[in-house]
Design goal:
The chain has 174 residues and is of the alpha+beta class. It is built from five helices and seven strands, in the order H-E-H-H-E-E-E-E-E-E-H-H. The protein has a seven-stranded antiparallel sheet. The longest helix is centred in the C-terminal third of the chain and has 20 residues.
C-alpha cells in the first residue's frame, strides 16, 4: 500500500551529439516522426494521429510495447517536448537543437521516466537508460548523414500546444 502512495524516484537521462546537418534539416528530421522506424531499431511503427498525437509500437525480441505520445511544446528549429499517454510505457522527453555552425547542429535529448518493475529499476541503476538515449542519438545522426534530411512524411508544424485541448478519441490519459 505504501509503495503506491510513495512516489518512486524519477530517472533522467540526457545526452548530446553534434550532427553534420544545418539546424533546420536536423530539426525537421526529428519531427518526421514516421521516419523513426528507419533508424531506431526498437521502433516498429509510428502513426501520426493528429497535429499533437502519435501512436508508437516498439519491439525488442518477443516483447512489444505500445503507447500514444502527446507533443507538449514545439518551437521550430529550437525544441520539441512530449509525453506518453496511456499504453505500456510512461516517460517525458525533450529534444533541443542549437546551431554549431552553418553545417552542424548540437542535438540534446533528455528523457525522464519512472521505473516500475524490478527489471526496470535494475536497468536504471546500471545506467541502461543513458546508453539507450546515446544510442538513439547516434542512430539519428547516422540516418541524417546518410539521407541528408527528412522525407517529409509527418512533419508537425505547430508552434505550441494548448494543454487544455482534448486528446483524440482513441487516446487514453494516464
Amino acid at each position: 500500500m505504501a509503495d503506491s502512495i510513495t512516489p518512486r524516484p524519477l530517472r533522467k537521462a540526457t545526452r548530446s551529439i553534434v550532427v553534420k546537418a544545418p539546424l533546420s534539416a536536423a530539426y525537421k528530421q526529428w519531427v518526421d516522426l514516421e521516419s523513426f522506424p528507419d533508424f531506431l531499431e526498437p521502433v516498429s511503427s509510428v502513426a501520426v494521429t493528429s497535429e499533437t498525437y502519435s501512436h508508437w509500437v516498439l519491439s525488442v525480441g518477443r516483447v512489444t510495447r505500445e503507447f500514444d505520445a502527446e507533443i507538449l511544446e514545439q518551437i521550430p528549429d529550437d525544441h520539441l517536448s512530449w509525453r506518453t499517454i496511456g499504453g505500456d510505457l510512461a516517460f517525458t522527453g525533450r529534444a533541443d537543437f542549437a546551431a554549431v555552425d552553418d553545417d552542424s547542429t548540437r542535438v540534446t535529448l533528455s528523457v525522464s521516466w519512472e521505473p516500475h518493475t524490478a527489471a526496470e529499476r535494475a536497468a536504471a541503476t546500471v545506467g541502461i537508460d543513458a546508453r539507450v538515449v546515446a544510442s538513439a542519438l547516434r542512430s539519428y545522426a547516422k540516418h541524417l548523414a546518410a539521407t541528408g534530411g527528412p522525407k517529409g512524411r509527418s512533419h508537425v508544424t505547430i508552434k505550441s500546444v494548448d494543454r487544455d485541448d482534448p486528446p483524440p478519441a482513441n487516446a487514453e490519459h494516464a
